[in-house]
Amino acid sequence: MPGLTIGDTVPNLELDSTHGKIRIHDFVGDTYVILFSHPGDFTPVCTTELAAMAGYAKEFDKRGVKLLGISCDDVQSHKDWIKDIEAYKPGNRVTYPIMADPSREAIKQLNMVDPDEKDSNGGHLPSRALHIVGPDKKVKLSFLYPSCVGRNMDEVVRAVDALQTAAKHAVATPVNWKPGERVVIPPGVSDDEAKEKFPQGFDTADLPSGKGYLRFTKVG
Amino acid sequence: MPGLTIGDTVPNLELDSTHGKIRIHDFVGDTYVILFSHPGDFTPVCTTELAAMAGYAKEFDKRGVKLLGISCDDVQSHKDWIKDIEAYKPGNRVTYPIMADPSREAIKQLNMVDPDEKDSNGGHLPSRALHIVGPDKKVKLSFLYPSCVGRNMDEVVRAVDALQTAAKHAVATPVNWKPGERVVIPPGVSDDEAKEKFPQGFDTADLPSGKGYLRFTKVG
């Protein structure tokens, strides 16, 4: 399969959407974007996912992150389906655009195909792919889930927080990190540089190798 | 970049590891495997991740899931580093093998390269990629994280539970699903078939389209 992966620039495709024509790079502009596919309109897991995304829209908005959906259904189908999504979780409004890719070319270029799923005509269907795209139009982090497993939107929010914290403070986030917890200082930063960059101080874990590479600090 | 993605068969590579030579398909056998890369030995986030994986080993074992690590460091480096990992979280033993890919060929074939990260010789380094491989040797679900963001091992456990529940009961799991919660009946199953397959019954969400596609049930 074609291989859009982390570090790659997202293709600058132009597609119809529920908000009119969208050119992906223009849509990203200088923000983060969550570009996510769903297998099909009027299907069960997708309805729960897009309703959840609508519910989390405020959280993403606070973080300056825009949402952009895509599937192979057409725009009118998306618009009709949105009534179901909003009825399923009353109060959750689908304010983000959903793109239409009836030719299935975009989902191939975006690494969003689920090779195990076909429509009634044998056409490809999208997986539950979700790429976090940075202001530089590059894929920062990807989740590739099959149609039978709904995504975890809390983990998507956590990943956005981790990416933005890492980028802002030039640090990295340890396993299972949550906002407010300690971060680590990257290996390329010497202890002397770390003292300057992190005047709040840092703790170095005492490990058998004595290499002093596991350094924790707090950032605001 | 090369594009191993969900639905693809994992390449049947043979590599040295901390447990001797490993041929990936033989290692998978008829079980699920979590195949995960880390950017480098003796680096901070990786140490927290591999210690966490050691801590979760019992959870994965209960689910019949084997762990298999990989990076570009050599086997001796892995063995030395394991002392640090185990000292960082006393009681967490690294019982899973870590493969060595000094030629960087395997990480390319496995879609585990972080194109933004290079070693001091300009060589590629792995991302924090994690593929859940099924007994059929195919990639079921992938997490592709950059070096600056540690993974969420709770989400990995949840994803394994969701995949295994979906496969066992021929159902799908809605957004943010956790074990014990309701699952959904796939669209390909008619209501009549559903009544046979799910004698415990199911609830159909009442949505404006009236299409009756969002059907919840409980499985054991």
TrEMBL record, chains A, B:
<dbReference type="GO" id="GO:0005634">
    <property type="term" value="C:nucleus"/>
</dbReference>
<dbReference type="InterPro" id="IPR036249">
    <property type="entry name" value="Thioredoxin-like_sf"/>
</dbReference>
<dbReference type="InterPro" id="IPR019479">
    <property type="entry name" value="Peroxiredoxin_C"/>
</dbReference>
<dbReference type="Pfam" id="PF10417">
    <property type="entry name" value="1-cysPrx_C"/>
</dbReference>
<dbReference type="GO" id="GO:0140824">
    <property type="term" value="F:thioredoxin-dependent peroxiredoxin activity"/>
</dbReference>
<keyword id="KW-0539">Nucleus</keyword>
<keyword id="KW-0049">Antioxidant</keyword>
<comment type="function">
    <text>Thiol-specific peroxidase that catalyzes the reduction of hydrogen peroxide and organic hydroperoxides to water and alcohols, respectively. Seems to contribute to the inhibition of germination during stress.</text>
</comment>
<keyword id="KW-0575">Peroxidase</keyword>
<dbReference type="GO" id="GO:0005739">
    <property type="term" value="C:mitochondrion"/>
</dbReference>
<keyword id="KW-0560">Oxidoreductase</keyword>
<feature type="active site" description="Cysteine sulfenic acid (-SOH) intermediate; for peroxidase activity">
    <location>
        <position position="46"/>
    </location>
</feature>
<dbReference type="InterPro" id="IPR045020">
    <property type="entry name" value="PRX_1cys"/>
</dbReference>
<dbReference type="GO" id="GO:0005829">
    <property type="term" value="C:cytosol"/>
</dbReference>
<feature type="domain" description="Thioredoxin">
    <location>
        <begin position="4"/>
        <end position="165"/>
    </location>
</feature>
<keyword id="KW-0676">Redox-active center</keyword>
<dbReference type="GO" id="GO:0045454">
    <property type="term" value="P:cell redox homeostasis"/>
</dbReference>
<protein>
    <recommendedName>
        <fullName>Peroxiredoxin</fullName>
        <ecNumber>1.11.1.24</ecNumber>
    </recommendedName>
</protein>
<keyword id="KW-0963">Cytoplasm</keyword>
<comment type="similarity">
    <text>Belongs to the peroxiredoxin family. Prx6 subfamily.</text>
</comment>
<dbReference type="InterPro" id="IPR024706">
    <property type="entry name" value="Peroxiredoxin_AhpC-typ"/>
</dbReference>
<dbReference type="InterPro" id="IPR000866">
    <property type="entry name" value="AhpC/TSA"/>
</dbReference>
<dbReference type="Pfam" id="PF00578">
    <property type="entry name" value="AhpC-TSA"/>
</dbReference>
<dbReference type="InterPro" id="IPR013766">
    <property type="entry name" value="Thioredoxin_domain"/>
</dbReference>
